[in-house]
Design brief:
mainly beta; 7-stranded mixed β-sheet; 11 strands; 0% helix
Length: 112
């Protein structure tokens, strides 16, 4: 079974940091395009960051410079380091392989 499981969400004050993790199973992780997406209440899903097939990365403009994606193929894991968090970053964060599978998400809440 192809599966993605996120962890690392929680509550943090504005300006704080969190590190999200996503572990995959049931597929060849090293060959996969891995992305992070989020959905805030009442808003559409937006893709934040990801690895392309050539190994390069992309970032949504609103998180560029604050978020960093990384991966460890030996652990079948992808990470999202989030710094200088803002209240508008509050959302459910998903690990996603486009057109294949999406995890169940982890809640991130940024508030004072």
């Amino acid at each position: 079974e192809v599966q993605l499981v996120e962890s690392g969400g929680g509550w943090v004050q504005p300006g704080g940091s969190l590190r999200l993790s996503c572990e995959g199973s049931g597929f060849t992780f090293s060959n996969s395009i891995m992305t992070w997406a989020r959905q805030a209440p009442g808003k559409e899903l937006e893709f934040l960051s990801g690895f392309l097939r050539d190994g390069s990365t992309y970032y949504l403009e609103s998180v560029r410079g604050r978020f960093t994606i990384s991966r460890d193929n030996a652990k079948n894991a992808v990470y999202l380091e989030m710094n200088r968090l803002k209240p508008e970053d509050t959302a459910v964060y998903y690990c996603d392989i486009p057109q294949l599978v999406r995890g169940r998400g982890t809640q991130v809440t940024v508030s004072s």
